[in-house]
Recover the amino acids of this structure.
């Protein structure tokens, strides 16, 4: 039996991209899923597709920038399934722009979702996992959390923060909570759709000509989850073979 079988998994940002691909892969391996995102129509379609394939999934509309909504998500998961084994903090935004464009609203939204959203997720599930004396938090960072790029200073800062949070959780785990940080490179998702700066958008569009499929990241997430409980996969960086940066 796979280590994924019957594990209860929360996935944020599940309505598209990495979240959707991960939901489909984990459901096929027997996980019990709670899917979270803001777009209810897409969540309904995804839950329906998973059920049609014989999987188990439900959803809750959630804005991860709202701590109360994230807390409600954890409570609903516990009520539905009786436990929480894995949290996948996947929700994120990437509205790139040079600092001198002074897109303060976009900076604040990135901080709210990319950093606070991760922290709110951990805050909601950690007491439950402590009580269980087991759990696994998987955070989606980025290669931008390892290297700073022009036009991406704030985005990179948020993803460096995700790496720091992941490592802090590992150090404080007391042997109970597994912590995995996954840093994708160019992946075919909707992440670039939030870029309003024309120059930044052009640069990303060029880079993403070599983008890999979202299922490449889903496979890495599944690999981390399916390890025995005494094995903690802490860091994975995944790039297209042709990506240099």
């Amino acid at each position: 039996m796979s280590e994924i079988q019957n594990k209860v998994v929360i996935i944020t940002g599940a309505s598209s991209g990495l979240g959707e691909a991960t939901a489909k892969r984990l459901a096929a391996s027997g996980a019990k899923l709670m899917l979270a995102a803001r777009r209810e129509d897409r969540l309904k379609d995804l839950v329906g597709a998973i059920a049609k394939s014989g999987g188990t999934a439900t959803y809750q509309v959630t804005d991860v920038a709202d701590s109360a909504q994230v807390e409600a998500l954890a409570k609903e998961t516990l009520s539905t399934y009786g436990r929480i084994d894995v949290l996948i903090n996947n929700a994120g935004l990437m509205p790139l722009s040079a600092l001198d464009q002074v897109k303060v609203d976009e900076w604040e939204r990135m901080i709210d979702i990319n950093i606070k959203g991760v922290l709110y997720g951990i805050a909601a599930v950690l007491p439950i996992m402590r009580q269980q004396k087991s759990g696994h938090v998987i955070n989606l960072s980025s290669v931008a959390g390892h290297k700073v790029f022009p036009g991406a200073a704030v985005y990179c800062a948020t993803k460096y923060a995700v790496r720091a949070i992941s490592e802090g959780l590992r150090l404080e785990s007391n042997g109970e909570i597994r912590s995995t940080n996954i840093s994708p490179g160019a992946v075919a998702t909707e992440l670039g759709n939030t870029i309003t700066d024309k120059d930044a958008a052009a640069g990303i569009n060029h880079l993403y000509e070599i983008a890999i499929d979202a299922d490449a990241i889903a496979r890495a997430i599944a690999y981390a989850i399916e390890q025995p409980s005494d094995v903690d996969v802490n860091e994975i960086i995944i790039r297209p073979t042709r990506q240099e940066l």
User: Anything to note?
Assistant: The longest strand covers residues 177-184. Helices lie at 17-28, 40-52, 67-81, 104-132, 153-171, 198-207, 215-225. The chain has seven helices and seven strands.
